[in-house]
Amino acid sequence: MLISAKLKPIALATSLVLTLAACSEDTSSTQGPNFGGGTSEPGNGGGTTFDEKALVANLVDNVITPTFTSFNQQASANKQNIESYCAVEKAAMAGDATEQQRLAALASAQTSWRDTTALWQHAELMQMGPLLENEGELRNLIYSWPAKSLCGVDQDTVYFEDGVINLNASRPYDIKQRTATRRGLVSLEHLLFTEQLNHSCSIANDALADWNNRSDSERRIARCEFAVEVASDLVDNSQVLLDKWNGDNGYAMTLKNAGEVGSSFDSVHAAVNVISDALFYLTEELKDQKLALPLGYESNSCGLEACPQDVESPIAAQSLANIKANLAAFEKLFTGNGVMQDNTTGFDDFLVEEEGTDVKDAMLTGLEQSNAALDAINGSLQQALIDEKDKVETSHAKVKDVTDQLKHDFINKLALELPKSSAGDND
After folding, report:
1. Which pLDDT score is estimated for 420?
2. For the chain, which end, N or C, has fewer CB atoms within 10 Å of the first or last residue's CB respectively?
3. Domain range holding 111?
4. Residues 181-194: pLDDT tens digits?
5. Are 22 and 403 in contact (CB under 8 A)?
6. What are the distances in angstroms from CA 27 to CA 23, 24, 303, 414, 427?
7. Phi, psi of 31, rounded to the nearest 5 degrees
8. Domain limit, last residue, from 245, 277, 292
9. Per-residue pLDDT reduced to its tens digit, 127-174
10. In a domain, 145, yes or no
């Protein structure tokens, strides 16, 4: 089985070989000079009276919790849509549904996957607590990128169909025991969007031996049935996330009770730092993995040149939409603009209180320009890397403008500490 990348966080520990244009940052700063409150009362980043507890409460209740809840709801709807598609696929094989009806049902299932993925891409910017436990185990079960194994998904398609692993009766199939690269949204992308029905393995094992000789209808049904199983598993894991997040003992309450007696956080400021750490998804994952790597700023599958196959979502061509969703989630966390419009306490307000209005304005301008650069790209990110690479380079540069501010002026003004993954970043 070939796996294109190791699971997080190992996948992000790759060596970076960047162009001079992408390496102009000074990374000597690892934390603001007053990290932890300086000489002021704990919880006040720079010694002001800004209410950090209100900031944490608003971001948790108004931004993060609604995102996780919406994802859980959409995951359930996605399962139902895939079940409906599979029913039509079976009806078409029996002659009880037309090809037009089959294609319409498939398109509906694909749209459902896109909607589910879009919501998850917001959650990708909110990785803390249960999504970081055990080296991101739960996160990876939901979305294993950048690790993937199309061969592994094809193998599990027939294992699930047979009810046993590789025709071994002593090894009953259980998706809960399978690796993350055979589950979650990455697996569903392959099952729902790959038009090539032959398996992806360089060598077929016993279970796959006759796969390529089976009829198209049989293979589509096998894939859709496994897709239903994967979608059901996705619902379960989205519920695990909610259960770990909500409730009196959930991580949301842990953040909101920071600094109180018995809290695992010594100060509210430490909880603020946990949330600020999530913003740094914009650096390694978005800027470096989703843009710099396929651009060839890092060593990729093509060496050190533009490599369309190394984009995040090459099968469904969802890469640009994912990046835009990431930026939208970043802006929500930064500004505190969530589902309740009467409370918008965010990091932007904290910056103003800490005499960092210029930093706030620069970051918001950078976000606006990043979105404009991405909107200027025609079609998919894959095609843009071939036809209009300059536009992708501009998008990377604009995102870098934001991350430059994030890694220096932002943490310095708010007396925050860089996450460990960014402290030694030379880009």
Report:
1. 80
2. N
3. 67-245
4. 999 999 999 999 99
5. no
6. 10, 9, 26, 17, 8
7. -165, 155
8. 245
9. 999 999 999 999 999 999 999 999 999 999 999 999 999 999 999 999
10. yes
Q: How many domains does the chain have?
A: 2
Can you give the pLDDT at residue 28?
34
Task: Say how far apart CA 113 and CA 83 lie, in whole Å.
Answer: 12
| Residue 3: burial class (beta carbons within 10 Å; 0-12, 13-18, 19+) | middle
| Of residues 164, 188, 184, 182, the one with CA closest to residue 174 | 164
Asked if the structure places residue 256 within a domain, the reply is no
How far is Cα 383 from Cα 186, in angstroms, rounded to an integer?
21
* Average confidence score pLDDT of the chain: 90
Q: Are both 48 and 130 inside the same structural domain? A: no
Residues 61-115: tens digit of each pLDDT: 999 999 999 999 999 999 999 999 999 999 999 999 999 999 999 999 999 999 9
Asked whether residue 14 falls in the same domain as residue 132, the answer is no
Q: How far is CA 8 from the centre of its chain?
A: 11
Structural contact between residues 42 and 326, judged by C-beta atoms closer than 8 angstroms: no
d(CA 350, CA 344): 11
The whole-angstrom separation of Cα 3 and Cα 26 is: 34
Residue 200 CA to residue 1 CA, distance in Å, equals: 10
Residue 257 belongs to some domain of the structure: no
Question: Do residues 319 and 228 share a domain?
Answer: no
Q: What's the pLDDT band for 31 if we cut at 50, 70, 90?
A: low
Q: Which whole number is the average pLDDT over 235-254? A: 97
Same domain assignment for residues 195 and 217: yes
Q: Which two tokens stand for residue 50?
A: 């800004």
Strand partners, 229: none
- Rounded Cα distance, 335 and 344, in Å: 7
Helix H, strand E, coil C: the string for 70-83 is: HHHHHHHHHHHHHH
pLDDT at 35: 44
